[in-house]
C-alpha cells in the first residue's frame, strides 16, 4: 500500500495527492517538485518496485527498511539519508507503551517513509499535507520534521495518562492501601523506564539531524530538529518527576502499613493491660491458703467482682485520658486521622 | 474588550493611552510608532475586526488564539510571530496552581496580546506603560519580555507559598503526626510536579525567543529572553529542593510512627513482664497438692501478697534503672524526647 | 596469532585478506593503501616482530600493549597514536560483567589492534571488512570507530539482561519476598556501578578522540567518535534509571515484610483478645470464696461454658464485622490483597 | 555614614583614604582616578546628597537602594549599572543563615556600595584597600568582584558549620537516637534549602556580570565574575551532598528505632515463652479432678516446683544457645552491637 | 630540603639532576633551559633564599606558600603564577582521606613546587624526570600537569578502597546485620563527601588552568589540564554511584532488621497461640462448681491431659501446614531465606 504526494513549486505550487505510480519518476525528475511517498502495511510488489527500481535505494537499506530494527540509526548513502526512528503507538497507557518503527529515506527533493503498523504521526501529517500542502510546500525535510515532532508530541498523551494514573494511585493508597498498589507503582515505573529508554534512542537520531552533520539538511531545518530534541530532553526531566512521585506513593503505602500496625499494637496493649490485672486478682483468691479471711466474708465475692470492674474501668479511663482509647481500627480507616478522638484533645 | 497603547517616537515620544479603534490603522502606518493592543475577556466584535481586518492575521492563528491551547508554540508568519505561552493565575497556592493562556502576535512595530482570563502580568505591564511609557518606548519586544518576565516572577510567590507550607507541615509532623500530613505532602509534591511541567513548557518558548532564531527579535532583546529562561532553570532546581524537603518530612512521619510503635511495645512489655510472674505465683498456691506446708501457715497468705508486691516493685525498679520506665506515651508526646527521664541518665 | 588486512585504493580498491607477514612492509609503503593488523592471543614471536621491527613502535608502548592495564589512555607518538580502551566480554550478565582490554596503534594509513582475549567487537568488524572491505576502504580511523562503536553497542545486551532481571526480581518480590531478593538487588546494583565506571573510563578516550585534539583523526571521523561518546552518556542515564528501579524493588520488599508483620500482629491480637476474657471467667469461678452462690447451682457449670462460647463467638463476629477476621496468613499470600474478604466489603 | 577611598593613577598611584565629601566631585572629575564610596548604616543627610547631587543617580535606583529588596537585579542606566546582591551575615550557622542586602552603583571610574547592616565582605575589602590600595588600583570592577567573591567565600564558613553539625548529629544518632535529632536534620536541611535559594539568586547576577553583556565591565573582569559564578555552582553541588548525608542520618535513626523495637520484642518473647508454660503447669495441678494421683504424693509439690525451675532454665538455655538471651536493652545501648554475647559466638 | 632539576634544550637536551644551589641562577638565565625546583619538608634557610633571593617571589606569595592554606587559588604575579592545590596522602582509605597541600610557582622556564608533607605525586614525577627527562624536556607546564594528573589518579586508589569496602559491608549486612554496619556506611559516606569537596576545589584550579586564561600556559597544555578536570568530573559522578550503593546497603540493613522482627513476632504468636488454649482448659477444670460431672470421672484427668496434648499438636500442625512452624530464628540466620521449610513448599 503506497501513497504518493507531490508539490510542484514551478507549476504554481500545484498539490498532487495520490498520484499513480507511473507519474512518480517524471515528478522526481522535475525541477522544483517535491515528492513524499508513504509505504504502509501491507507491503506489496509495487512498493518494492518503487524503492528498488524508481528510487534505486541500496539493497542493504531496503533490507533494513522492511525488517524490524530496534535500534535507531542514520546512514548516509549517495544522495540520500536512510533513517530509522521509532514512535509510540496510539494505545500507550500508563502501564505499557509499544513502539512502532518508522523508516525514512530523505533525498534532496523526496521523502520515502515506511511503517509496518499504522502510524498516528504519519497519518496526521498526511492529512495536513492533503488539506494545505504544508509542510511539503516548504521542503521535504520539513515533512520529516513534522513527523518526528508528532512522534514526540505523542509522548504528551502518555504523560497525561501517567499523571492521571498517579493521581488515582495516590487516592487509592490513602483510601485503602493494598499490596497491589505497590505492584502498580512498580509497573508504571517500569513503563516510565521504557519511555526514557525510547526518548534516549530517539534523541540520538534527532541530535545528529539537528547538528548540521548532513548537507542534505538545510541549517534552518536543523534548528527544527534541535527543537524536537530539546523537547525530548525536557520530557525526560518530567518523567523523572513522575518517577519521584511514584516513589513517594510507595513510601506513603509503607507509612500506612506502619500506621496500621501501630493501631493494632495499641489495641493489643489496651486489651492486655485491662485483662491481666483481673487475672492476677482471680489468681489471688484462687489460692488455697487456709488463712485467707476475705474468703469467709459473705460480701467477699461481690466486693472482688466490683473491684475488678472498677479496676478495668479505671484503666480504660486512664487510656482514654491519654488519647489511646479507640475502637479496633477498621481496615478501611487508614485514610483517616491517627487520633480518632481529636475533639477531646482540647478538653484535657 | 480591547486597549490600545502607542508610543510615537518621531513625535517627541508621545504616549497614547486607550486610543479609539479608528486610530489604530493610522498609528500602525506611522514610521517609528509602536503599538500594543491588549485583547481581554470578553472578546467582542470589534476585537475580532482588529485582528482580522486591521492586522490581517492568518485565519489559523486567529482560531488558535481565541480557543484554548495547552501546548505553547511559536509560529512564524509573514511579518509577525504568533506565540502561545502560559502564566500562573494569581491564586496559585502550595497545593494547586492554575494556568492562564496568553497569546501574542509580535510584529516589527506592534504587539497584540490576548488572554481569556485576567492576567496579572499583563495588567502590571499595562499599568507600567500607562505611567511611564516604558518598556514600549524601548521596543515592542521589550513589552513581550516584560510580560514573560512577570509570568516567571509569578512563580516566586508560589515558591514562597510552598516554602511556608513546608515549614508548617514540618512543625505539624513533629507536634502530632497524622496520616493527613502524608496526604498533604503528596498534594504539594503533585503541585510541584505541575509547576515543573509548566516551567518545562515555558522554557520551550523562551529558549527559541532567546536564540536569535527569528529576525524580528533584535539580538539585545534575545539576551533578555535568555535571562528569563535561565531564571526558570534555576527555579526548576529549587523546586527539586522543595521536593526533597517534602520527602524528608514524609520520612520523618514514618520515623514518628515507628517511634510510637516502639513506645507502645515498651509499655506492653513492661506490663506483661510485671504481671506474668504474679500469675505464676498465684497459680502455684492455687495448686491442689495435699502436701503444701505453706498453705497451712497462718502468715502464708500475707507473705505471698508481700512477696508479690516486692517482686512487681523490683521489676519496675529494674526497668527504671534501665531507663525503660515511662508512662504509656501520650499520643501528643511524639515530638518530645524518646527518653523521658533523661536527668537520671547521669546519675547511674 | 595475527591477521593482516589491506585495501589498496590506488589499485582499484583491491581488498587483501590475511596477507603473509612479508607483504606487510611493502603494503605499508604503498601510497593510498590502508592496512589493519589484528594481533590476537597467543602472542607469538612473529607478532612481536611486527610491532617491533616492521612498525618500529616505541618500546614503552609495546610493553604497555602486551601487559594488562586497567586505565584507558591515549598517547601521541611520532606519527601514530597509542590507545588503550576496554570492551565488555560477551558473557556480560545482569550480575557481573568482565572487561577485555583492547590496545590500538593508529597511524595515517595503518591500524594495529591487540587483545589478549577474544573480542566480539573486533571479530564483528573483521568479518565485515573481510566481506565488504568497509569501513577499511573508507579510512583506518573508521575501522577504529567501528570497533569502539561495537564495544558501546555491547552494552545494549547487558542493558537488556539487566532489564529482564529486574522484571524477574519484581515479580519474585511480589510472589514470595525473600532476603535473597535483596541480595540480588544489591548484586545487580553493584554490577551497574561497575558498568558506569566502565562507561566513565571509555568516555575519557572517546571524548579526546572526538575533540579534534589529534591531527591524525580527520574532523569528519572525530564527529563519529563524538556520537559514540554521546551514546555512552545516554546509556549512563539509563543505568541510573535501572538503579532507581532496583531501589523501588528493595522498598517493595520492605513493604511486603511490614505487611506480613502487620498480618501476624493482627492474628496475635485476635487470638489474645478471644482467649483472655475466657481466662478471666475461669479465674473468677476458680476463686475460693465461701459465699459464691453460682457454684452451688446445678446449671452453673454449663451456663458458664455456654457464656464462654458466646463471648468468644461474639468477639470473633465483632472482628469479622471490622474486617479483621482472617486466617493466619500463609507465607505465600503476601502477593495478594491485604484485605482477604474484599467481596464482603460491599455487603456491610 | 560614608567612607570615600580613591586611587589617583595619574598621580603616582596615590591612595586617598576617607576623603572629605567636598573632595569627591573633583576626584571623580580627574582622569585616571578611581573612587569607591561605601555608604553604611545609618544613612545620613550627607549620604543622600552624595548619591543624589554628586553622582546624580536615577531617583528610582536611589529608592531601590535605600529600601529592602529580596530579589537581586542589574539595571543599566546611563553611564552606570545599578546592582542588588545579597550576602550572608557573619552569624550564619548550620540551622539558620541571614541575608544582608548589598546595593552597588558601578560606573567607569567609581563604585558606590550601600548596605543597611554591617557587611563582612565589604569590611574585608575596605581594609585591604586601605592597606594596599588593591584591588582599587586595578579597577573599580575589581573592587566589586572582590566583594562578591568574599560573599561567596562567606558560604564556606556555613559549609564548615553544616559539616561539623552533621558529624555531631551522626554521632548523637548512634549514641542515643531521639526524635529531636530528626527535627535537627530537617532544620539543617531547611537551612541548606535556603542557602541553595540564595546561591541561585546570586548566580543570576554573577552570570550576567560575567557574560560581557555590559560594556562597563572589561572582558578580563567578566572572567573573574564567571569564576565566582562557577564557585557557587560547585558549592551548590556540595550542598546537595550535605543534604544526602542528612537523609542518611534520618534513615540511620529509623534503623536505630527499628532495632530497638526488635530488641524489645525479643525481650517480650523471651519473657512470655518462659512464663507461659509455668502457668499451664500450675493450671494443671489447680484442676479439681478427684482422681489426680500426683496430688496425693508427699513429694508432688516439690517435684512440680523443681520441674518448673528446670523447665524455665531449659528454655533460657535454649534461647542463649540461639543467641537470644540478652538483658532488656538499656536505651543507651543502641549504638552497640545488635548481638550482646558476641564473645560466645565463636564458642558454639 | 630542596632538589634542583634542569633540562638544557640548547645543549643537546642535557639533563641535570640535583644541581647545587649556586648553579640555579645561571641555569635560569640560560635560554632554552627549563628548571624545576622542589622544596620539601623541612624548609631550611637555603630554601628560603632560593624563593626570596634567586626567584625574588612576592613576599605575600612566599608567606602563603610556607603556611597552611585549605582553599586552592591561582594568583598571577609579574612573570609567574602562584598556585595552591591539594593532593590526597598515600594513606587514603575508605573511611578517611587526608589532604596534602602543594604550592607551585610557574614561570616561563621554571617551576618551583613546595609541599610540607611527602607528596606521592611529586615523588613519582621526580623519579620519572630523573630517569627520562620527560616531561621537563617538553615544558615546565607539562611537569605541573603531570603532578596534578598524578594527584587526580591518586583518587583511583581511594575509589578502589571504597569499592572493596562496599563489597565487604554488603556481605556483612547479609551475613549478620549489626548497628555498626550502619555506622560504617555513614563513615564511608562522610569520606565520600570529603572527597567530593576535594574534587570540587581541585576542579576550580584545573578549570582556570585549562581555560587559556593565562598567557604563561600554552594552548596545547591547557587542553591537558582540561583533561584532568574532565577526569575529576567523571570521578565525582562515580562517587555519587558509590553513595547510592551505600544507601542501598543501609536500606538492606533496615530490611534485615524488619525481617528479624517479623520472625520474632511469628515465634511469639506461635507460642502464645499454643499455650493460651491450654490455660483456658486448665482454668475450666480449676473452677469450683459443685456440679461438674467430669471431675468425678476417674479417667477425667488423663483425658484432659491427652486433650491438651492433642490440641497443642493440632495447632502446631496447622501452623506447619501454613508454613509458619520454624525454630526461633538464630540471630545469624538472617542471611538465609525467610522461609525455612522451603523444601516442603512443593509438597503441599
Detail the topology: elements first, then pairings.
The structure is a homopentamer of 348-residue chains.
Chain A: E1 2-8, E2 14-17, H1 24-29, E3 33-39, H2 45-54, H3 59-66, E4 73-77, E5 80-88, E6 99-107, E7 110-114, H4 120-132, H5 140-175, H6 179-209, H7 219-285, H8 293-296, H9 300-321, H10 342-345
Helix pairs in contact in A: 4-5, 5-6, 5-7, 6-7, 7-9
What does this molecule look like?
Five copies of one chain form a homopentamer. By secondary structure, chain A is α+β, with helices and mostly antiparallel strands. In chain A, 58% of the residues lie in helices and 13% in strands. Chain A contains ten helices and seven strands. In chain A, strands 2-1-3-7-6-5-4 form a seven-stranded mixed β-sheet, with helices on both faces. In chain A, a hairpin with a 5-residue loop joins strand 1 and strand 2. The first copy, chain A, is rod-shaped, with a radius of gyration of 36 Å. Chains in contact: A-B, A-C, B-D, C-E, D-E. At the D-E interface, helix 5 and helix 7 of D face helix 6, helix 7, helix 8 and helix 9 of E.
Runs of chain A in which pLDDT lies below 50 for 5 or more consecutive residues are: 326-348
Q: Based on DSSP secondary structure assignment, what is the total number of beta strands of chain A?
A: 7
Sheet with the most strands, sense and barrel status of chain A: 7 strands, mixed
What sequence of helices (H) and strands (E) makes up the elements of chain A? EEHEHHEEEEHHHHHHH
- Secondary structure class of chain A reads alpha+beta
Name the overall outline of chain A.
Answer: rod-shaped
Helix percent of chain A reads 55-70%
Numbering strands along the chain, what is their spatial order in the largest sheet of chain A?
A: 2-1-3-7-6-5-4
Total helices of chain A: the number is: 10
Largest interface: which pair?
A: A-B, 62 and 68 residues
- What is the typical, i.e. mean, pLDDT of chain A? 82
Radius of gyration of chain A: 36 Å
Give the DSSP E fraction of chain A (strand runs of 2 or more residues). Answer: 5-15%
The end-to-end distance of chain A, rounded to whole angstroms, is 81 Å
> What oligomeric state is this?
homopentamer
Amino acid at each position: 500500500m503506497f501513497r504518493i504526494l507531490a508539490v510542484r513549486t514551478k507549476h504554481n505550487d500545484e498539490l498532487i495527492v495520490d498520484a499513480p505510480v507511473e507519474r512518480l519518476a517524471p515528478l522526481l525528475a522535475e525541477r522544483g517538485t517535491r515528492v513524499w511517498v508513504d509505504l504502509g502495511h501491507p507491503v506489496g510488489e509495487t512498493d518494492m518496485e518503487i524503492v528498488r527500481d524508481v528510487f534505486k535505494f541500496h539493497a542493504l537499506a531496503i533490507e533494513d527498511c522492511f525488517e524490524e530494527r530496534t535500534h535507531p540509526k542514520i546512514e548516509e548513502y549517495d544522495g540520500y539519508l536512510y533513517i530509522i526512528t521509532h514512535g509510540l503507538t496510539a494505545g500507550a497507557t500508563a502501564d505499557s507503551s509499544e513502539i512502532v518503527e518508522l523508516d525514512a529515506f530523505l533525498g534532496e527533493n523526496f521523502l520515502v517513509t515506511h511503517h509496518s503498523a499504522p502510524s498516528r504521526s504519519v497519518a496526521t501529517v498526511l492529512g495536513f499535507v492533503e488539506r494545505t500542502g504544508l509542510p511539503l510546500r516548504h521542503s521535504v525535510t520539513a515533512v520529516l520534521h513534522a513527523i518526528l515532532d508528532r512522534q514526540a508530541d505523542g509522548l504528551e498523551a502518555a504523560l497525561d495518562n501517567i499523571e492521571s494514573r498517579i493521581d488515582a494511585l495516590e487516592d487509592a493508597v490513602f483510601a485503602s492501601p493494598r499490596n497491589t498498589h505497590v505492584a502498580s507503582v512498580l509497573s508504571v515505573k517500569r513503563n516510565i523506564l521504557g519511555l526514557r529508554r525510547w526518548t534516549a534512542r530517539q534523541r540520538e537520531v534527532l541530535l545528529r539531524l539537528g547538528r548540521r552533520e548532513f548537507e542534505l539538511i538545510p541549517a534552518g531545518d536543523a534548528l527544527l530538529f534541535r527543537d524536537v530534541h530539546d523537547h525530548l530532553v525536557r520530557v525526560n526531566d518530567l518523567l523523572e518527576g513522575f518517577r519521584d512521585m511514584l516513589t513517594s506513593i510507595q513510601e506513603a503505602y509503607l507509612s500506612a502499613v506502619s500506621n496500621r500496625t501501630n493501631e493494632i499494637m495499641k489495641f493489643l496493649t489496651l486489651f492486655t493491660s485491662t485483662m491481666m490485672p483481673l487475672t492476677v486478682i482471680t489468681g489471688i483468691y484462687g489460692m488455697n491458703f487456709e488463712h485467707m479471711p476475705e474468703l469467709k466474708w459473705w460480701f467477699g465475692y461481690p466486693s472482688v467482682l466490683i473491684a475488678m470492674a472498677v479496676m478495668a474501668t479505671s484503666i480504660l479511663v486512664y487510656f482514654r485520658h491519654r488519647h489511646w482509647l479507640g475502637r479496633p481500627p477498621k481496615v478501611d480507616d487508614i485514610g483517616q486521622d491517627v487520633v480518632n478522638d481529636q475533639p477531646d484533645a482540647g478538653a484535657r
